[in-house]
Design a protein that fits this description.
With about 210 residues, the chain is mainly β. Helices cover about 5% and strands about 40% of the residues. A six-stranded mixed sheet has the order 14-18-17-22-23-19, with no helix packed on it.
Amino acid sequence: MKSAAAIVSAMIAAVVALASPPASAVSPFATLPQACSGGAVPALGGGCVCGSGYATYHTGGGILCVPQIDSTCTGGTMVGGQCQCPVGDQAYRSGSGNVQCIPPPAVVTCSGGAVVANQCVCPAGDTRYAASGTAYRCIAPAVAACTGGSIVGNQCVCPAGEMRYASGSGGYRCIAPAAGKCSGGTIAAGGHCSCPKGDTRYTSGGGQVVCLPQ
């Protein structure tokens, strides 16, 4: 006859055998997360993805996304272990939990020019001046002279019927329209208008050249 201890041991072994399914019945997906709390599973499948600023914790039944505890908060305010940045600022987090709040780049204004990649770009020949902060203005060079016309708003304005010709020194002269592309000069090789020695070379906006004695 078996002893009482042997009978109890046999009963325990039978219960364990019934509670443990055979190895072939174990699902190959048993190790995959069964839940994604606080995160999201991509539409195309894959694991649980936690958002920016969240830490990933593996639990027995899946994955839990928990807000990271920030250690420093530069430019913001620490609230409940989280760095809160001012409205409009961007929070930059390092792997060690340090957070820095960075304001967006200031908006640049550019009077007389164009804003390109948040920079004021002036037309060729104009000078860029800073008005205040990020406000800029493009100003054309001052007119040195306007012979035969009038300077209005830093522009040489010629009388009706006359054309404005520019000299190389930044001055202008108002001259009645001349025939040809090289009045008073000689067209040299390459189509360049060459003025006599001592004459001043004036050029119109259309490329017409007039040579006049000084």
